[in-house]
Structure formats: structure tokens, C-alpha cells
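S.,

Sequence below, as promised.
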Amino acid sequence: MLRLKRPRMDLRSLITLLAVASIVITLANSLYATWRVQREVLIGNTLEANRVYATKLASTAEMFFQLAQSQLAYSAKLLEGGLDDDALTLGEVERLDKQTNSFNSVVVVDAGGWVKAVSPESLMLKGMHLTSNSTQEALKARKPLIGKPAMSAANNLVVFVSSPVWSKTGRYLGFVGGTIYLKKKSILNELLGEQFYRDGSSLFVVDDENRVLYHQNSKLIGQKTASIIPERLKQKSSNGYQQVGEVNGEPMLAGFATVPTPGWTVVALKPTKTTLAPLSHLLMKVLQHSVPFALLTLLCAWILARLIALPLWQLARKASRMDAPGVSGEISGIRAWYYEALQIKRTMLAGIGLLQDKIGQLKFEVQTDPLTSLLNRRGLSAVLEYFLATRQPFAVLALDIDHFKRVNDTWGHNVGDEVIKSVAQQLSTSSRQTDVVCRNGGEEFLMILPGAQRDIAVTIAERVRQKVAQQELETVGNITLSVGVAFWDAKGEPMERAFKQADDALYQAKNAGRNRVVTCPPAAAEKNRISHSG
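The prediction came back faster than expected:
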């Protein structure tokens, strides 16, 4: 008996493995999706917060410069009577210096570049001729101006704000201007320095040449730095944000805004690492809340896997011993609580019933012919009942020994029996292992060829005919067979009709001269049946 090797995995293990894999993959996917979403949210919120903060500071700086220019314009209006009145010019610069607190120093310069008044007086610039780029630019432009940051004689990085002075008749008299220190304490530093830098965030201001004008690290003020915000982005919008590759060795999230009047850029930075620091804690929280439910789901999946696999496992065990007595009752006792298991159970019970019935029937009915050891008619009937139950198509060969009556009359029945035994032996040796050979009575035989196509059946019939014709018997010499071939296709046609067609074909072989094979086509068989019945 062929024994198949038992697989290492059973259905229960497969279902459990599938459930575990599904839950683990789902949990991992959920964690990854949560990580991705939260990461994008944290980065997006930080970028927007930096943009808003930079915009706020840029707006504050812009308002400061507009106010400073307004203050200088008012003073310029008061000085339109002329710059030769020392008391007037001195009083005005002292008022601007002490009253507004917008400038670190204030100066009045005539059209030739000579200082008419200065505050504080400790600078001792009165009567001096100014040649700095900012003063020369103000004299040349003759309009309100914010100069480019430059180093002063005292090594201070300053920005110079000026407003032209015109006489009542429209003659240019000079300008009044104020300086704002960028390295030392000033009101602008105080406006920009309100941020707390406890989380690694930083803020700096650069001009259009990327010179640092403000930074919490005062050593960097006045130095040029690499451009963090691309110029195309600045031109596209006055404010925005961008993820920066690396600043000081680590990725940053930058928000920026432009101060329109001086053309400066305020940049707020926060390290990406600091922004994403809460993400790990958040994922741990999600994991802590997800794991208990995942374990509960795994337990439920394991229990369900056992419940689903149990009926099939029990049926599989019974299937390996279907020939054991009482197995039908054991299978009937298996609780098949879902459709597939129930159908398998019913099929197994039906198969066991059919198998047991056939075994009992074959033991009782299948007998052999004592002369030829071939099946007799009872045995053939049992086989045909099995073919009918299983709808197994077959070819049928009706065989008859030619002139057998003459053998009996000439040499006696003993010689006739030897002829019959010899023919039976040739039929057995010429047939396939699955073929059924039967003695139908007297000198007539039947061969049932399961599943044989027309060409195969004819080939076997010819082979049998030739072997019998070629064998020379001791007393009789050579004998011959006539063979009729017909087919049963198991498609609803009565089985008896196939045997009738085989008899008709055999009859045609006899009439055609014997020792030949005649195959009965369906149409010819039907026609022949009608003619015989007539």
C-alpha cells in the first residue's frame, strides 16, 4: 500500500500562522503609518510656526524702520529753516536721541557733508567732514534711505537711517540721520531678541549679501554666511519655509520672512531632531495601547483556528482508516459546523457506503467461470453496476469463435473445451491490466475496455484476433474469431444499447466472412437495430 508522507504543517497551524502574520503586518503597518503621519504633522507644524514667527519679527522690524523714518522726516521738516542755527540743530538731535530711543546716535549733516550737530556729543563729530559710504549715498540720493550695514570707525556694525532736509524754497540743505548698532545693545536687538532658545531653536537676520546682522551668538554678527534660503524662494514669496539639509552639522527646519524696506531676511531655525523628539514617545504610547488588543486578537484567532480546523482534522484522521469497521459511525459523530466540513463529511460517508456495498457485492456476486477462470455473467454485472454508478465510459468487444460447432461435432466437447480455454488465455494476455474479460456463454466472450477511445479499442480487438488466428492448436489447427466493437459514453445512453450494438457489429463480421473486426458507428448501429427489429 502506497503511504504518502505526512506534511509538516496542518490546517490549524496554517490558519494560526496566517492570523498571526496578518495581525503582525497590520500592527506594523499601523505603526509605520502613524509614524509617517505624525512625522509629517510635527515637521509641518514646526515649519509653519517658524514661518509665522519669522513673519512676525519681520513685520515688527519693518514697523520700526517706518517709525524711524517718520521720526527723521519730522525732524527734517523742523530744520527746513536752515542748518546754521546751532541751537536748533543741537536741540533737535538731542530730542531724537533721548526722546525716541530709536537710534544709538543722531547727526545733522549739511549738503557738503559737514557735521552740523551730533548726539551724543561725546562722539565729537561736530565740524568733521563725513566720507563714509552711507553718508555719501544719502547725500547723493537726497531721499529717505536705509543704508547698507557697515563697520563704523569705532568698529561697530551699524545701519544708518537718513531723511533729506529741504528748505522752504526747495533747496537741498543736507540730511538728518540716525545710527542703529547691530553688535551692541539697541532697540532693534531688543525687538529681535525676544525668542527663548531652550529647544535648540535659533534666529538670525541677514542682508541681501548674506551678511549676518543679528544672531544670538554675537561673534557671528558682521560675518558672511552660506545662503540657507534659496534666492528663487525669496523671489517667489515674501515669507515661507523649507527643510534645510544641514546647518552646523544637523538638519534644520527653517521659516523665513523678508523685511521689505531694508531688504533684510529674518530666518527662524529649529533642529529636525528636536522637532521629532516627541515622536518616539508617541509611538511607544500607540504600541502600549495596541499590543493588548493585538494579543487578545491573537488569542481569539488561535481559538478560532482550532475550532475551524478540528472537524477537518478529525475527518482527515478517519480518511486514513476508511476500511476499518465502525468508521462510518465515528465519522457521523464528528461535528461539522460549517459548509465545507459538512460537505466533506457527507461525501466520505457516501464513499464509505458505496465502497462497503461494492466490496460486499463483489464478494458475493463476482464469480469466475470454472473452465476459463474468467468472470462469468454475474461478475460482469457487478462490474457494469460499478461503471454505471461512477459513470465510467468504456468500449465493449463481443467475440465469437468461428465454426465452433464444427469443432465439437468433429473432435468432441473435450477438444472444444480446450479450444475455449486457449482462446480465453489469449484474451487475458492480450488485454490491458484494467480491462475486464468475461465468458458470456458457450463460445462467446466479452471484453470491457474502460476509457478506451475508438482507435485503442480497435487496436486491441485486432491484436486479439491476430493472436488467436496465429496460434496453431494440436488437434484442431488454426481457429479464428469474429469481433464486434461498440462504445458506451456514460452520457445518458442505456448501457444495454452498447451491448446490442456490439452484437450487431459481431453479426456483421459473421456475415462478412468471419475472422474480422467490425466497429459499429452510432448511426450504423441504430440502423442495424431497426433492420433487425423489422
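DSSP finds 15 helices and 18 strands in the chain.

Coffee later?
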